[in-house]
Structure formats: structure tokens, C-alpha cells
Specification:
Number of strands: 11
Number of helices: 10
Largest sheet: 8 strands, mixed
Structural class: alpha+beta
Shape: flat
Distance between the termini: 14 Å
Strand order of the largest sheet: 2-3-1-5-4-9-10-11
């Protein structure tokens, strides 16, 4: 397919102002996608005013989600078209006027508009990259001590504090769903939720094995030990995203337990849910209400089942293309925290920061920004190669 109008304008402007035109076939594909997005946006806008759609809450919620997802790119595309129109009008003014001062003013505005157009076009390319549909979701985070015994449990507690401090810095709400601690302040396992728009887009790269190198408090000889902790970041999903057959569930109640007295009660309020088809077991005992514990356990189970469905759906793609920031698999070592050297190294992107105290206190933005940038660069490169 060829876009003659777009191509002729670009060549003309390029010859006049020494700008290299972009491959017209690639631009055609891009504008086809943008036109389709704008048409779909208008279509959904009409549907959202339909009384039948409004009455169907599930359909209405689904359309609103799609509408919101298209809003940014459509707005940017309309800004692009307006700037393009401004450029065309400025070129007409140049053709119709011989006044030197006026032409200089128009040329200046034209140069500004061309710079703006280039910026908008790059932004549109970014917006057209494949989106993770879970990026806007809340998250459920699981942290488990791995190799290293009590030292691994202590580092799991440190990571839990690191993430909760990051939440506090961003004014995100976090809530413990399940906690199994140790006698000396470590954590065998903790499951907690984070409620914030875009939390998953920031934290999804944290899934994997975190390795710590330091002298444990339990080490009398001062030797450096290496321990590991596993982190899983799951998108929180709604009932409509995952349908669970009640007949597939085995629900048991028992008395909560824990090293600290605050987690122990004298009633059978703790909940254990076993999903029989997959063998997934979820427990929740943090609340004193059995009903609340069951609700939270179901929330965790839905997220786990959703993750399994996603992995099955994406397994074929994952085998042929591995992103720069890794697969996110929990068996993959993603980061090392070396306390004697004061450094944190992310092995997926080769980044080392000598600010371990700040990072452990929740200063994660530099790490997360670098991971997001690497992922976006990889996706943009893949998108360009696919078009070729």
C-alpha cells in the first residue's frame, strides 16, 4: 500500500529544509494503524451512549477500558494532524507572500512546527508499540526466602521493607495478605497487595531471583555468605478476567499461627484454598475475619491462574523472542545486592549502582527507569524489524 499524499508533502518539505524523509511504506503502515485507532475510538464513543450497553455493566466496563486505552494515542494523533495542517498553511503563506519580514516570521514558525511534528511522530511510534494489557493494574507481590536458611529469610524481610518503602515514597497503598515470619525477624514468605494505577507497569520487572552477598548477623566468623530470595509480581485481576468453578476448589479453615502474638487468634479464621485442577494452594491468615481471609485468598488465586493462562498464551512467542530485561521467570537470577561493596547489579541490563543503602530504603526509580527504557528500546527495535 502507498500513501502518495503524505509522501509528496514529506519529500517537498525534506528538499526545502534538508530533512530526510521517512520510508513511505513504513509511514503508511503507521498511519493505517492510527486511522484504525481513531475510528475505533469514535465507534466506542457512540456505543458508550447506547442504553443497552450501559445496562450491561460487564460490557460497559470493557468498552470503557478500551476507550481509555485509546484516548492518549488518538489525542496525540489529532495533535499530529493539526501540526501537519499548520505546516501546510504556512507553506501556502510562503507561496503567496513576497514580504521579506513576513516570510522570515513564517519560516521561523514553520521550523518550529517541523520540530514539533518530529517529536510528536516519535511519541506516536512509542504509543503504537505493543502494550502490556496489565500495566494499569494493581499488583500482588510474593516474596519467599530461597537458598540460605535464616539469612535468606532475613533478606526476604529486607526486600519486603524495600518495596513497602517504595510504596510510601509514591503514596501507594500496600496491604499484607499472608505472612509467615521467623523468630529472629526474618520472613519465610509474605504475600501483599499494592493498590496504585500503573503499579504493575513499574514493578513487573522485579519478578525473579534476588541474590544477596553479605556477612549474616548469625555468622560469628565474619565470612560473606550468598543467599537468594524469590520475588513474584502478579497483576491483580477481576472476577470477569478469570472464571473459577467452585467445584474445583477445596477450602479448609484452621487457626492462624505466627511467631508474633499479633498474628495468632483462637478461632479457625485462617483459610487454605486448593485449586484441584492445577494443585495451586493459597493461604491467608492476616485478617481475623474468616470471610475477609477467603476474599483475599481468592484474589491471590485469581492472579495465579491468570498468570498461568498468560504464560501458556505467550510461551510460543517467548521461545522465539526474549526481551532485553529477561523473561521474568522466577528461576532466573535478575539482581545481586553486594553489601560489602555497597553495590546493586541488575544482570539483565548490565547496570550497577553504588547506592545500596538508598535502594534498600526504597529508592528504586533509577533501577526501574533503566529497566523500562531497555524494554521499550527492545520492543521498538522488534517492531521496526517486523515491519521490514
Amino acid at each position: 500500500m502507498f500513501c502518495p499524499g503524505e509522501h509528496i508533502v514529506d519529500i517537498a518539505v525534506g528538499l526545502c529544509y534538508n530533512i530526510t524523509p521517512i520510508n513511505p511504506l513504513k509511514r503508511c503502515r503507521m498511519f493505517d494503524k492510527l486511522d484504525a485507532a481513531e475510528n475505533r475510538y469514535e465507534e466506542i464513543s457512540l456505543k458508550l451512549s447506547d442504553p443497552q450497553v450501559i445496562a450491561d455493566q460487564d460490557e460497559y466496563r470493557r468498552l470503557m477500558k478500551e476507550f481509555s486505552g485509546l484516548e492518549e494515542i488518538v489525542s496525540k494523533y489529532r495533535e499530529y494532524k493539526k501540526t501537519k495542517k499548520d505546516i501546510a498553511e504556512a507553506r501556502e503563506l510562503l507561496e503567496d507572500s513576497s514580504d521579506k519580514d513576513f516570510r522570515e516570521l513564517v519560516l521561523s514558525e514553520l521550523d518550529d512546527a517541523k520540530e514539533k511534528l518530529e517529536v510528536i511522530e516519535n511519541e506516536l511510534k512509542q504509543l503504537l508499540m505493543p502494550k502490556d494489557p496489565n500495566d494499569s493494574r494493581n499488583v500482588i507481590v510474593e516474596i519467599r526466602g530461597g537458598a540460605g536458611g535464616e539469612e535468606a529469610a532475613l533478606f526476604a524481610a529486607d526486600l519486603f521493607r524495600m518495596y513497602t518503602r517504595y510504596c510510601e515514597r509514591n503514596q501507594w497503598r500496600s496491604e499484607i495478605l499472608d505472612l509467615h515470619d521467623t523468630e529472629i525477624g526474618g520472613i519465610k514468605e509474605v504475600v501483599f497487595s499494592i493498590e496504585a494505577k500503573g503499579a504493575y507497569s513499574r514493578l513487573k520487572y522485579e519478578s525473579g531471583v534476588h541474590r544477596v552477598q553479605r556477612v549474616p548477623v548469625t555468622e560469628a566468623g565474619g565470612r560473606i555468605h550468598t543467599s537468594t530470595v524469590t520475588v513474584a509480581v502478579l497483576p491483580e485481576v477481576d472476577d470477569v478476567d478469570v472464571q473459577i468453578d467452585p467445584n474445583d476448589l477445596q477450602i479448609d479453615t484452621y487457626r492462624a499461627s505466627g511467631a508474633g502474638g499479633q498474628h495468632v487468634n483462637k478461632t479457625d479464621s485462617a483459610i487454605r484454598i486448593t485449586h484441584l485442577p492445577t494443585g495451586i494452594v493459597v493461604t491467608c491468615q492476616d485478617q481475623r475475619s474468616q470471610h475477609k481471609n477467603k476474599d483475599k485468598a481468592m484474589k491471590i488465586l485469581r492472579s495465579k491462574l491468570y498468570e498461568i493462562a498468560q504464560q501458556q498464551q505467550e510461551s510460543e512467542i517467548a521461545q522465539t523472542r526474549k526481551t532485553q530485561v529477561g523473561t521474568g521467570d522466577r528461576s532466573e537470577r535478575i539482581r545481586t545486592y553486594n553489601f560489602p561493596q555497597g553495590r546493586v547489579s541488575d544482570h539483565r541490563i548490565g547496570l550497577t549502582l553504588y547506592k545500596i543503602d538508598a535502594i534498600m530504603d526504597g529508592d528504586l526509580d533509577e533501577l526501574l527507569d533503566a529497566l523500562i527504557t531497555a524494554d521499550q528500546s527492545e520492543k521498538l527495535g522488534s517492531a521496526v524489524n517486523d515491519e521490514d
